């Protein structure tokens, strides 16, 4: 695991480079004119997984934008060792692989990329019957907490990487592709870091897109992060509805399918509260019209004219 890099002075977003401060005035609502004149734009994309954050970030990456993926940073910096330990523990259960690992005949490493974050979600896991790949409640909560701490750390790294994007890699602009669970962290200090250094843009799903995302989760249930209070509350309801006595009796995929619409609904006001206080809101329909950087910048300017 690499050493934690030394902090570097971050860019003052609305003031271009400023040696006296690395923050913007958080009380200020940016006008479209000011945004257009902002030389080194820094934006955080907020919203549920699947609303188009990464798709947009990949488009911007082609136009001198540094793409900072929160999930990639989580997997490669803060959960790398835990993920590897999990993979190795699974491999050790296979006699052939066990002997090769113990004799150092083979080694295992992560191959996490911005386009392949499967090791991160696989480590997070699903709650339920271990015979169906599920985790017990204690282990599940342990991994959930590790993920929460890792996401907080990754988001607090944003100012440092704004500096790196400009000074080391030579990118003009910066886009923070934040994870869908950012609104669940219950850590105001982390949100303040993002608000101080970036323009926060919440991508709000339309009702149609919401239903599409719910259907996607129904067809292919994936591991999710839950606030502990939400998990405890919903788990009790689920066990009662399904007439199940123990977590080990839960079908992992069934619980994800059941919980996802409730999780989605619980996150919407949390996203909106962050946007209302610290940022701005666009809809998934508006985002679908964006074809390139020019279209995105015009959309942001339009939003600022309406919401500033």
Give the SSE layout.
Elements: H1 32-37, E1 42-46, H2 53-61, E2 65-69, H3 70-78, H4 80-91, H5 95-102, H6 118-124, H7 137-156, H8 158-167, E3 173-177, H9 188-197, E4 199-204, H10 207-219, H11 228-242, H12 252-278, E5 279-283, H13 284-288, H14 293-307
Parallel strand pairs: 1-3, 1-4, 2-3, 4-5
Helix pairs in contact: 3-4, 3-7, 4-6, 10-12
The helix content is: 40-55%
Q: How big is the Rg?
A: 21 Å
Assigned CATH architecture of the domain at 40-126 and 133-208 and 271-307: 3-Layer(aba) Sandwich
Distance between the terminal alpha carbons, to the nearest Å?
A: 43 Å
Shape: globular
CATH class of the domain at 40-126 and 133-208 and 271-307: Alpha Beta
Describe the overall structure.
The chain has 308 residues and is an alpha/beta fold. The chain has a domain at 40-126 and 133-208 and 271-307: Rossmann fold, CATH 3.40.50. It has helices spanning 32-37, 53-61, 70-78, 80-91, 95-102, 118-124, 137-156, 158-167, 188-197, 207-219, 228-242, 252-278, 284-288, 293-307, and strands at 42-46, 65-69, 173-177, 199-204, 279-283. The chain has a five-stranded parallel β-sheet with strand order 2-3-1-4-5, sandwiched between helices. Helix 4 (80-91) packs across helix 6 and helix 10 packs antiparallel against helix 12 (252-278). The longest helix has 27 residues, at 252-278.
């Amino acid at each position: 695991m690499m050493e934690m890099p030394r902090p570097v002075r971050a860019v003052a977003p609305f003031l271009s480079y400023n040696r006296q401060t690395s923050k913007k005035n958080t009380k200020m609502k940016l006008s479209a004119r000011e945004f257009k004149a902002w030389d080194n734009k820094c934006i955080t994309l907020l919203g549920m997984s699947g609303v188009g954050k990464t798709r947009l970030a990949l488009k911007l990456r082609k136009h001198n934008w540094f793409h900072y993926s929160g999930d990639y940073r989580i997997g490669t910096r803060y959960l790398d060792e835990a993920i590897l330990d999990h993979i190795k523990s699974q491999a050790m259960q296979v006699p052939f692989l066990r002997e090769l690992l113990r004799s150092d005949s083979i080694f295992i490493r992560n191959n996490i990329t911005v386009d392949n974050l499967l090791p991160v979600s696989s480590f997070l896991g699903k709650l339920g019957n271990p015979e169906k790949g599920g985790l017990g409640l204690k282990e599940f909560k342990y991994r959930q907490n590790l993920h929460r701490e890792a996401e907080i750390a990754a988001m607090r790294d944003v100012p440092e990487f704004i500096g790196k994007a400009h000074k080391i890699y030579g990118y003009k602009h910066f886009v923070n592709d934040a994870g869908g669970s950012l609104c669940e962290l219950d850590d105001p200090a982390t949100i303040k870091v993002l608000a101080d250094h970036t323009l926060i843009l919440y991508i709000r799903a339309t009702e149609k897109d919401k239903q599409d995302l719910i259907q996607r989760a129904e067809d292919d249930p994936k591991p999710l992060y839950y606030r502990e209070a939400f998990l405890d509350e919903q788990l009790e309801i689920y066990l009662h509805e399904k007439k199940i006595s123990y977590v080990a009796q839960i079908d992992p995929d069934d619980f994800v399918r059941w919980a996802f619409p409730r999780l989605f609904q619980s996150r919407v006001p949390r996203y909106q509260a962050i946007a209302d206080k610290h940022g701005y809101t666009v809809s998934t329909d508006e985002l679908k019209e964006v074809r390139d950087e020019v279209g995105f910048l015009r959309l942001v300017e339009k939003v600022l004219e309406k919401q500033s």
